[in-house]
TrEMBL record:
The gene is ispH2. Signal peptide: none annotated. It comes from Peptoclostridium acidaminophilum DSM 3953. CDD domains: S1_RPS1_repeat_ec1_hs1 (cd05687), S1_RPS1_repeat_ec2_hs2 (cd04465), S1_RPS1_repeat_ec3 (cd05688). Keywords: Oxidoreductase, Ribonucleoprotein, Ribosomal protein. Binds mRNA; thus facilitating recognition of the initiation point. It is needed to translate mRNA with a short Shine-Dalgarno (SD) purine-rich sequence. GO terms for biological process: translation. PANTHER family: 30S RIBOSOMAL PROTEIN S1 (PTHR10724), SMALL RIBOSOMAL SUBUNIT PROTEIN BS1C (PTHR10724:SF7). Residues 27-96, 114-180, 201-269, 286-355 form the S1 motif domain. This is 4-hydroxy-3-methylbut-2-enyl diphosphate reductase IspH.
Length: 383
């Protein structure tokens, strides 16, 4: 075999190898095998005469990506051809651009179907925050990052949120996410579950969410019910804050509900017995009891024996000597001892005598109690 024949054979081998090599051009999408990974780049064998290089910036839009964790040697990946020669004889590849091309079609489909998916919030920008999904950044307006008020958007950075696409424009590369829309759907689902299962007369657990002058709103797990101020306690309540605070976990009694109007009426006091129903078993005529002066109208004193249970002491039964008005010898909030001289549970009336408890004589209860114009705190206030 002469030299020319040898040379021909070598040329044929080179030609055959060239034919076996892939023919690629800028913009192609090809598959390759990872042959090397370090902190700054990934080298990929794409079956071309030169290996391909993916720089960290071309691997993902996530600046925090760790290449050695994202891919491993011998992984097969799909890449986008950016340039056939990067100046050093390598093919410049991009995974980020490939994902970008594919994911926009996904975003369009997800927008149409209302699909919910996770994104990671990466930075706060004017008017909202940027979140990352498959290497593509989308905008979350401040008004759509949560159903509730958010004072500082920075608290969401680094967190993963479930979102929906609410606006997408592939041509303009515009993408808008919403967490609020997802929360709305979650709340509606929970609300429906509560309204479908709630029963009058049952006791449920909830959390106090908001206090108003007229009562307290309690979250029952998706829908709020209202405890009117009159249903907070068996005793008189001037402000809901006297009984509950926002954030309190409470057990409430379901008084009524309207599924169509999505309204639920609750009671806190009805979880415990009305103290008047237990009067006959706890108190007897002749007992000397301790109480707190609640109110001093001109004709007597209302004395609280226990929360929700008040007795009345007529002015003639306050002191051994004659007094012009109850406030001459008593003050609101004062602790006193009094003797029970009459009990009428059905009328929610207990007649008391302070002077009897002190050893003085009392007039017959009928001499004054039936003529007394007011026998409860509520009656006194109304008058």
């Amino acid at each position: 075999m002469n030299n020319s024949e040898n040379m021909l054979t070598m040329q044929e081998l080179l030609d055959n190898e060239e034919q076996e090599m892939k023919r690629i051009k800028t913009g192609d999408i090809v598959k390759g095998t990872v042959i090397l990974v370090n902190d700054n780049e990934v080298m990929v064998n794409i079956g071309y005469k030169s290996d391909g290089i993916i720089t960290k910036s071309e691997f993902s839009s996530d600046s925090d990506v760790v290449l050695t964790e994202a891919v491993k040697e011998n992984d097969e990946i799909e890449v986008y051809v950016v340039k056939l020669n990067d100046g050093e004889g390598n093919v410049l590849l991009s995974r980020k651009r490939l994902e970008g091309l594919k994911v926009w079609d996904d975003f369009i489909a997800m927008h149409e179907t209302g699909e919910i998916f996770p994104v990671r919030v990466v930075e706060v920008v004017k008017g909202g925050a940027m979140a990352l999904y498959k290497g593509i950044k989308g905008f979350i307006p401040a008004s759509h990052i949560s159903m509730g008020f958010t004072k500082d958007l920075a608290e969401f950075v680094g967190k993963t949120l479930e979102v929906k696409v609410i606006e997408v424009d592939k041509g303009k590369r515009k993408l808008v996410f919403s967490r609020k829309e997802v929360e709305k759907k979650e709340i509606e689902s929970k609300k429906a579950a509560v309204l479908d299962s709630i029963q009058k007369g049952e006791v449920r657990k909830g959390q106090v969410k908001r206090l108003t002058d007229f009562g307290a709103f309690v979250d029952l797990g998706g829908i709020d019910g209202l405890i009117h101020v009159s249903e907070l306690s068996w005793k008189r309540v001037n402000s809901p804050a006297e009984v509950v605070s926002e954030g309190d976990m409470v057990e409430v009694y379901v008084i009524d509900f309207d599924k169509e109007k999505e309204r639920i009426s609750l009671s806190l006091k009805q979880v415990t017995p009305d103290p008047w129903t237990l009067v006959s078993s706890k108190y007897n005529v002749g007992d000397v009891v301790e109480g707190t002066v609640l109110r001093l109208p001109n004709f007597g004193a209302f004395i609280e024996l226990e929360p929700g249970l008040d007795g009345f002491c007529h002015i003639s039964q306050i002191d051994q000597k004659h007094i012009a008005k109850p406030s001459d010898v008593l003050s609101e909030g004062q602790k006193v001892s009094a003797k029970i001289i009459e009990i009428k549970p059905e009328e929610k009336k207990i007649s008391l005598s302070i002077k009897e408890a002190q050893g003085g004589e009392t007039e017959a209860a009928e001499d004054y109690s039936d003529e007394t114009p007011v026998n409860t705190v509520e009656d006194s206030i109304n008058e």
